[in-house]
Amino acid sequence: MTPAAHQSQHAPELRATARHLGRRRFLTGTAAAAALAFTVNLPAAGTAAAAELDPARLTDDPFTLGVASGDPLPGSVLLWTRLAPAPYQADGGLPAERITVHWELARDETFRRPVRRGTALAHPEFGHSVHVQVDGLENDRVYYYRFKAGTWISRTGRTRTAPALGAQAAALTVGVVSCQRYDQGYFTAYKHLAEDDVDLVLHLGDYLYEYAVSGVGGARAYPAGTVPTVYGHEMVTLDDYRLKYALYKSDPDLLAAHAAHPFVVTWDDHETENNYAGAVSENDDPAEEFLIRRAAAYRAYWENQPLRRPQLPDGPDLRLYRRLHWGRLAQFDVLDTRQYRSDQAYGDGWRVPGPESEDPARTLTGGAQERWLIDGWHRSRALWNVVPQQVTFAQRYNSTAVPSQVSMDSWDGYPASRERILAGAQAAGVENLMVLTGDVHVHYGFDIKRDFADPASKTLGTEIVTSSISSGGNGSAKPANWATFMAANPHLKFYNGLRGYATVSLGRDLARADFKTVPYVTTQGAPLTTAGSFVTEVGDQGLKPA
């Protein structure tokens, strides 16, 4: 079924009211949410008072999608699960009834030292997902958690709280991941990450892909018919997105990584549609149609990720940018470079910059998010200011020609937006800036120059770009353009095209980045190798081999 045909399955009343929405009305109020009838608040009192599912009717394991935790705060954890005894059905194999879910938090994985327990309701309006915020805990401590529904008990998850805001934390290690396309390979890197010694994981987007998945799972080459036919079309509706999350979360290595570490997530484009920009779809579909699709995608994203209450979607809007702290050691300003951006210049792709891309009015973040970021830097008391985000921030030429082409989808396609950010960091006195990036399916290590046209200009910080988990297939250590990119970009210090993830360890004196790779993803069992290691010193930014 084509995407256009699938869009026609949206409720007629939603499509009718959506036609009255302008392309950017969704940015100016809640009218879009009301019109689209996708406001994600607590279910109405009448719904909440409806019949509750008898636990005896849960005859199959409802915890097939695993458990997760996210956004650790001082004294607070966020716990997630979603009930789906039949994950490849649109309703998860559950009736439209609420279900009581019990949760437990303990100091040990045997639960002999319990700390808290309680119940939460899994509502069908939320796809029977559960988001439990547990407050009043000790700072900077590891905890274990699990859920129970009926007679079924979930696997055990491990999470942690952040240090107190003023604490002089000595160290922090994060895993950095991005781009996991199910049909292009196994998630083997997650198996290794689950066993790695990290405090938390930053997921920088493309958690799933909207494209169809064949019955053999693409490159996974399962026996024909292993993947249900429901995945044989591009996802467009709310049911489509919910089902695709279930497919991805069926991967045992992804399940293990979520259970092992708390995640901090942000999206890029494929959680909704490739290279969309704000309310502009890739194929310039009518805005009223695309906003319905975006509302469905955003709602499914919240349902399937360990996100806190402020990230509840409001129709086709969801404020995903947010700030987290790790004591006085690090401030994390998590960005959303997809929802508020101007449309890509020159029709997208790799193009020579010109008046259209260099228009000062163009933005990648939107004005409100840009001000929020820079204001946050002015107030920051952290040693390291870290910006987890989606697309390549540093200048990236694809040839040594003058002028060279650059990617219109990355910050190179929005140079005025990048200049405002760099000027804001300099004005705020940010001395140890680190940008963390995904999207491009390769490992890069960049120095962030105040003026990329002048290699001798001040280095304001570093950018660590992580490769994909599986997107792009096996890849290669030295892609065909390796020599060209290294020559054309003197601030590029490392480039590797294999799949994997990065770890970044922040300390009081320096930060260390390790680029980790697997040699293949189209078959299982690949070993993990550290392909490159670099440090950048406090007060002396710039990547140096470790």
TrEMBL record:
Domain (PhoD-like phosphatase metallophosphatase) ranges: 175-515
Give start and end of each Phospholipase D N-terminal domain. 65-161
Cited InterPro entries: Metallo-depent_PP-like, PhoD-like_MPP, PhoD-like_sf, PhoD_N, Phospholipid_Metab_Enz, TAT_signal
Q: Name one Pfam family in it.
A: PhoD
Which PANTHER family does the entry link to? ALKALINE PHOSPHATASE FAMILY PROTEIN (AFU_ORTHOLOGUE AFUA_5G03860), PHOSPHATASE, PUTATIVE (AFU_ORTHOLOGUE AFUA_6G08710)-RELATED
Q: What is this protein called?
A: Alkaline phosphatase
Organism ancestry? Bacteria, Bacillati, Actinomycetota, Actinomycetes, Kitasatosporales
